[in-house]
Design a protein that fits this description.
Number of strands: 11
Shape: elongated
Strand order of the largest sheet: 5-6-7
Number of helices: 8
Radius of gyration: 39 Å
Mean pLDDT: 81
Helix content: 40-55%
Order of helices and strands: EEHHEEEEEEEEEHHHHHH
Oligomer: single chain
Low-confidence stretches: 301-335, 352-356
Length: about 350
């Protein structure tokens, strides 16, 4: 039975469900991310949401607080899975360098050496952009493509490798990554607000100070502190990526070319940049991970030594033939010279006899 593409994949990705799900090499970090999201929500539903359901005029209306938190958490986890378990835009590797770019330089009778240009220019929006050659994938990277050293793949529109989702963020999952981060921010705000509301209700019920109310519900204090700290990370990340989307940059481009002050050829205006990220159709994956491998039998390559030996043999045979031809010519001249000498000697001998 022929092996499938994902079974011989040269990257460091991990595949599940027969190649249907593709993760990065640090996929175990998803367990930590999953816990950081679900554990606070469980604590909220048990120690805060359960008490808040009695604080509304309609008894059933209080359940909405806990139900909304649960549904919102499921939505965030679904976005996390969509971000981490799909092809981020991996460019398929080549089995050999592009032959049209080969340049040979021969020196004497030695084997020709391969000269390969490391960069070339392509046109983007009417402006020449230089792209680099990737030695690992044996291809010229498309514009905005970069090789991830963690996953060992070239990824289109490479943004960064996120250890929290265990996957590269690129062309095909950037939209889900931003929605995941922004939704996690809103979830933190929701949990923080409901916990603060419960503290306020305790203050009103017991007519006490905020410190006494906090002693009545330490879980609310812990949740508020946790959400406040988390907002600095996910909230700051959301704001940073809003800026990147508005200016049509990637994290990689922003950090690498920040000091160059180069013109951004991809910037199409703030509105069009947002439409490009959120309203364009996601391109299908360029890799068919579940397809069987088609083995192509190729003739064994001729080594440089063999080719040199063959060339040397041909030249030796050619030299030998030329030597034989030269030797044959010399022998013919020698035989002719011997015949002439013999005729001359006969003539002299006859002349001497007649004189005698």
């Amino acid at each position: 039975m022929a092996k499938r593409v994902y079974e011989v994949w040269k990257g460091r990705n991990k595949f599940f469900l027969g190649g249907r799900l593709i993760f990065g090499p640090d996929a175990k970090s998803l367990l930590a991310t999953f816990s950081l999201i679900t554990v606070p929500v469980i604590i909220f539903c048990i120690f805060v949401g359960r008490h808040l359901r009695h604080e509304f005029p309609s008894y059933n209306a209080g359940y909405v607080i806990s139900v909304a938190a649960i549904i919102f958490t499921i939505f965030v986890l679904a976005l996390l899975l969509l971000t981490s378990s799909r092809d981020p835009g991996i460019v398929p590797r080549n089995s050999h360098p592009p032959e049209e770019e080969f340049r040979y330089e021969a020196g004497g009778r030695q084997t020709p050496t391969l000269q390969f240009p490391r960069t070339k220019e392509v046109m983007v929006n009417g402006i020449a952009v230089r792209v680099k050659y990737c030695d690992t994938c044996m291809l010229y990277r498309p514009p905005r493509c970069s090789h991830c050293s963690i996953c060992n793949n070239c990824v289109e529109r490479f943004d960064h490798h996120c250890p929290w989702v265990g996957q590269c963020i690129g062309l095909r999952n950037y939209r889900f990554f931003f929605l995941f981060v922004s939704s996690a921010t809103l979830l933190c705000i929701y949990i923080f607000s409901m916990s603060a509301l419960y503290i306020k209700i305790l203050m009103n019920d017991y007519e006490s100070t905020v410190w006494k109310a906090m002693k009545e519900s330490p879980a609310s204090v812990v949740l508020m502190a946790y959400c406040f700290i988390s907002l600095w990370f996910v909230g700051g990340l959301t704001g940073f990526h809003l800026y990147l989307i508005g200016s049509n940059q990637t994290t990689y481009e922003n950090f690498r070319y920040r000091s160059d002050n180069r013109y951004n050829v991809y910037n199409r205006g703030c509105l069009n940049n947002f439409l490009e990220v959120f309203c364009t159709k996601i391109k299908p994956s360029r890799n068919k991970f579940r397809d069987p491998i088609q083995e192509v039998q190729q003739p064994p390559p001729t080594t440089a030594r063999e080719s040199a030996t063959d060339d040397g043999g041909l030249e030796d045979r050619r030299v030998k033939v030329e030597d034989d031809m030269d030797i044959g010519g010399d022998l013919l001249k020698i035989s002719q010279r011997h015949n002439i000498d013999g005729i001359e000697s006969d003539i002299r001998s006859r002349g001497n006899d007649e004189e005698a």
